[in-house]
Specification:
The protein is of the alpha/beta class. It is built from 14 helices and seven strands.
Length: 342
Amino acid sequence: MHDTMIGVDLAKNVFQLHGASPEGHVKFRKKLTRSQFRKFMSDHPPALVVMEACGSAHYWTREMTALGHEVKLIAPQYVKPFIKRQKNDAADAEAIVIAARQPEMRFVEPRSEAQQARAVLFRSRERLVHQRTELTNALRSVLYEYGHVVPKGVAHQKRLKEIVEAEDNRLPALVREECLDLLAQIAEKTVRIEARTKRANKLASETGFARRVQTMPGAGPMTALAVEAFAPDMSTFECGRDFAAWLGLVPMQRSSGGKQRLGRVSKAGQADIRRLLIIGAMSRLSRIGRQGIREGSWLAKMLERKPRMLVAIALANKMARQIWAMMTKGEDYRDPALTVAS
């Protein structure tokens, strides 16, 4: 047990520190520049350092750990209730310490450099996909103004190109030039997306963790990369349902007076993994994917009486719990139906 708990309100240049004893007695309050903060912490005896889980928190966690301190990260929404009236850096740092002293407080698992690197690659690809979608929609809207209707989706890019390059498209010369420029930008984004997809697939085949995730139907390289980049160690969750709840794949509760009221999924978790699991679940419920669903199974019975999207959410929840079981037990995916049958 450390003698001092230091709450740090991180910033770009000026850091606010609040030092207190485990009982809550204030020891010091300091406002330090970036260089002063590093020197102060290197000279300070080992302490428990608590920070909000913001942009640079994972970097500073590694830096403080290297200096011999124990570091804990708290989600900002868990700190906010402990801020006293006026909000400023000093009040934030004090609130961080008060929140960390709560015995039932939940902390964020710090990310390693490798995890952050994979997250950067994943975000870069996602950003390019959004940019390509924006450009494609812009081209569709221009052509629509001149009487050409093209459905949504990347699959129809060839049709867009054929319309723009056709001699009888009746597009003004200026409009045709702009459309050709949009096509060139779309092609450039596609090349960059494919390069990052290839890199992601390579990364997803290098570790046993990512390879094991891909043994589950509906989970591809991007899902495996997202789990590896954004999810904490699975041992931090007591059961698979806790992992599904962390992803926001459980119903929102508004229960009171002993009466249980469950609503839509909470969505109060890691959005990237949740989205990919739902997409993977939808692929298993597609026309081709349904061919692999056994008659009389849980999934088949759900499809008979529930809307497809609701079944996909339930299946994504089940996939999350299966990922937790696979990772904690160190096993590849096993079909539950075959396991019961054997």
